Every structure is written in structure tokens, then in C-alpha cells.
């Protein structure tokens, strides 16, 4: 356990601490979905550090302490987290979530995020979405859904998010404080894309509901949008 707090890894420090053998979060007993999610959320960004410290109204301080002291701080300090630490968290999630398979079965990352953010820590939803002018929907992450498109061989995240929003007629109601995006996947046998290039920045201008944008023809404020 590492009770002392450490900031997220950046630039050369991230490469130095995280690269090499015995780095990252050790996998064990179908933990890959949780390992990948935790690494993405905390290794190199502080945007969700409130999950580690804030006394939310419904917050389970025991789970919060395990997440902070046994997983995030060791990951940022040494670049390595033992499988036993993740199993400790999984056991607590099993108790709190009334689901016995959290310690041995592979889960959808969204199920894990919803459980720990909503039921255990009591965090407000991170995203507000609207589809086709219908009622707003609140959620913690967005999973990319789209049909196979032949012109996309090695896409980047920007392309996938834009096309997924377009095909589902979705808009972001407001700029999210944190935009967690789950890449498309189809189990062990079939992958839609063999590789996806991470977009280091994401332009959400065209994804925002009622956001002022300039006309692509005259440069003035646009009054119509063509999908």
C-alpha cells in the first residue's frame, strides 16, 4: 500500500516509469477489462482524481481507499500494480454490487464503471447525450457503435467518435468534464479494426448540441447543419 499521494505521470516520466517488463497492472483471472480501464483513467491523467479523494454523499470510503492506496498510487510511483491489489478491489465490488462473478469472470468495462462511479462512490454522470431531439440521457462513458466501413482500415479515435455519433444521431448536450470512450469490439474471435490510432486531442465542436459554428461556405455563423 502507498498512502502517500502521487501525481499522474507525464511526458518523459511516464515513459521512464511505465515502459519495460513488469510494468502496468498485473492481470489475473479475467481482470483485463478492469486493468485496462483503471490504467486509462489514472496512470497519466488527474481528471478523475476526485474519485480518490472527494467525500461524495454515498461514497464507500473503504473502496475509495483501496483504489487510491493499493492501485493508483503504486501505479504512479513505480509503474506496477500487483494482481492481488486488483483482486482486493474486485472482492469489494462483489460485496457491494451483489454480483458474485466480479472476482472471476470477464465483464464489460461499462458495467464496472457504472458500479464503482454510481453505486459505490456516488459520482454524478459525466456525459449528457441527446438523440434525435429526444429526452436527455445521462451516462458515465460512451461506447462506439458503428457498422463496418470499408474506407476505415486504420482509423483514429476522432473518426470513430464522429461516425458513431452521426450513425446514432447523437449530440453532446454540454461539454463534458471527462469523456470516457469505449472502443468498438466484438469479442475474442472478431475485431472490427486490427489497430486504432489514439487521437491525442479530440475536437467535439460538431458533436455539441446547439453549438455556434461557422458556415463552411461563407464563414459567417451557420444557420443550417448538413449531416
UniProtKB/TrEMBL annotation:
A Pfam cross-reference name: UCH
InterPro entries registered for this protein in UniProt: Papain-like_cys_pep_sf, Peptidase_C19_UCH, USP_CS
Any GO CC annotation of this UniProt entry: spindle
Domain annotation Peptidase C19 ubiquitin carboxyl-terminal hydrolase: ranges: 24-204
GO MF terms held by the record: cysteine-type deubiquitinase activity
Keyword Cytoplasm attributed: yes
Locations listed in the record: Cytoplasm, Cytoskeleton, Spindle
Record's keyword annotation contains Cytoplasm: yes
Source organism superkingdom: Eukaryota
Keywords: Cytoplasm, Hydrolase, Microtubule
Listed GO biological process terms: protein deubiquitination
Protein name, per record: CYLD hydrolase
Gene: Cyld
Amino acid at each position: 500500500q502507498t498512502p502517500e499521494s502521487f501525481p499522474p505521470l507525464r511526458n518523459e516520466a511516464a515513459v521512464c516509469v511505465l515502459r519495460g517488463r513488469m510494468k502496468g497492472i498485473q492481470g489475473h483471472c479475467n481482470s483485463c477489462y478492469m486493468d485496462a480501464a483503471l490504467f486509462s483513467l489514472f496512470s497519466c491523467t488527474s481528471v478523475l482524481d476526485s474519485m480518490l479523494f472527494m467525500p461524495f454523499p454515498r461514497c464507500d470510503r473503504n473502496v475509495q481507499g483501496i483504489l487510491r492506496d493499493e492501485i493508483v498510487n503504486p501505479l504512479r510511483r513505480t509503474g506496477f500494480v500487483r494482481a492481488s491489489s486488483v483482486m482486493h478491489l474486485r472482492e469489494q465490488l462483489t460485496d457491494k454490487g451483489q454480483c458474485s462473478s466480479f472476482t472471476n469472470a470477464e465483464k464489460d468495462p461499462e458495467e464496472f464503471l457504472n458500479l464503482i462511479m454510481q453505486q459505490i462512490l456516488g459520482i454524478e454522470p459525466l456525459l449528457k447525450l441527446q438523440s434525435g431531439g429526444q429526452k436527455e440521457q445521462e451516462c458515465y462513458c460512451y461506447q462506439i457503435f458503428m457498422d463496418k466501413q470499408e474506407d476505415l482500415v486504420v482509423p483514429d479515435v476522432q473518426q470513430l467518435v464522429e461516425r458513431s455519433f452521426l450513425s446514432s444521431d447523437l449530440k453532446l448536450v454540454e461539454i463534458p468534464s471527462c469523456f470516457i470512450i469505449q472502443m468498438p469490439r466484438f469479442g475474442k474471435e472478431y475485431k472490427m479494426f486490427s489497430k486504432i490510432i489514439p487521437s491525442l486531442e479530440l475536437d467535439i465542436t460538431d458533436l455539441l448540441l446547439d453549438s455556434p459554428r461557422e458556415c463552411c461556405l461563407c464563414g459567417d455563423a451557420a444557420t443550417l447543419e448538413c449531416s
